[in-house]
Amino acid sequence: MEDLDKLNRLAASHGALQRGTGMVSGVIALSLAILCFLGVLAFHFPQYLTTPQLRQSYDVAVIRQIMLGALAVSGGIALFNILFGRARWLAFSAFVLVGLCLLLGGHKVPVNDFPDNTPYIGLDWFILDLLGSTLIFVFIEKLFALRRDQPVFRAEWQTDFHHFIVNHLVVGFVLLATNLLVHKLFGWAAKDGIRGWVESLPFPVALFLIILVADLVQYWTHRAYHEVPLLWRLHAVHHSVKSMDWLAGSRQHILELLITRTLVLAPIYVLGFSKEVIDAYIVVVGFQAVFNHANVSVRLGPLRYLIVTPNFHHWHHSQDDEAIDKNYAAHFAFLDHLFGTAVKSDRPWPGQYGVQGDYVPDGFLKQVAFPFRWKG
Questions:
Q1: Is the CB of residue 306 less than 8 Å from the CB of residue 239?
Q2: Which of 166, 169, 269, 256 is nearest to 210 (CA)?
């Protein structure tokens, strides 16, 4: 029970982990062990815990090797820390969880035939995205940090992580709802002639066009979230984050997620882009959505007037007066310059993030309820 209390206190805390005590390595070991345990569950119940579209794209044998490596690293770190008395309570928790994974079959859990049409949550998407994003973006943030004194576990990280978890696990519902809405609301606009022409475009041209079309819709949708009071109630949740890093972009109300994805996917569906182009667009938008919130000092010189960079999007999240209702674009910065909504400031970076007045509560459940309770 004492170890469980320590874990709860650790999960509820924020700030830099003390180095040389086994805390950093212990957190890494426990995190890997938790992801492996979730992976084992996904292997046991793939029809309910994996995403149909995603499981067609990855190689299960490769996933098994990744899990084996993660189990070995987690168990090795935990055992080392136990033997040398480094945060033993944390190391022991990771070691026990690794043992439980092995008892349940570990990376060797057989996956037999299973139906494809069952209700599911995107546990596999959550595991892969969290592991990949952490490895890539935490490394980038440490290498090119804008605010070097900002720890990985900064204030309010728990709220953003809860948003990250929920928005990933309900990916099946989001996909189903957006596809249904797009077909019901915009199916009449799809014309075979236009779709055939778009599908025949060379890949680089089609990729540029899909990003441009999506960003034009994103720009005006985003601008509406700021200028229409009813929509701002939803969007204020996203803007309430006070520290920018790779996890900050996950803070998004589920209704905003549904509305935005439906409106952005509508022209993509109507124009009939090929699967290869759509897949490439998903990679681009996925990377930019995380990278542009990251705690990295990247401006890209004159290119920042053409494409959206972390510097450009950090200004959008600023409380500074010159940044309010500015920099709406998600991919192409020239759209804001074209429509007169680009930030103009002599300072290279904003000073403070969040909403002016700081009226959005912290905590996932409070933020889900906030748009329906806010009287402002």
A1: no
A2: 269
For 75, how many CA atoms within 13 A lie in the half-sphere containing its CB? 16
Say how far apart CA 20 and CA 29 lie, in whole Å.
15
Any idea what DSSP says for residue 317? T
- Global pTM reads 0.92
Lowest-confidence pick of 12-21, 80-89, 234-243 = 12-21
- Single-letter amino acid code for the residue at 307: I
- Residue pair 222/331 in contact (Cβ under 8 Å)? The answer is no
Contact 71, 36 (CB under 8 A): yes
Q: Is 145 exposed, middle or buried (0-12, 13-18, 19+ CB in 10 A)?
A: middle
| Integer angstrom CA distances of residue 185 from 13, 62, 228, 256, 286 | 45, 40, 22, 17, 25
> Does pLDDT of 222 surpass 80?
yes
Polymer length of the chain: 376
Contact 91, 22 (CB under 8 A): yes
285: tokens are 């938008």
Q: What is the DSSP string of 168-182?
A: HHTHHHHHHHHHHHH
**Tokens 């998903």 belong to which residue?**
282
Residue 9 CB neighbours (<10 A): 9
Question: For 223-235, what is the mean pLDDT?
Answer: 96
Other C-beta atoms closer than 10 Å to the C-beta of 314 total 25
Number of H helices, E strands in the chain: 18, 0
Q: What is d(CA 323, CA 345) in angstroms, rounded to the nearest whole number? A: 8
Residue 285 has phi, psi (to 5 degrees) of -70, -35
pLDDT digits (tens, 9 = 90+) for 294-340: 999 988 888 889 999 999 999 999 999 999 999 999 999 999 999 99
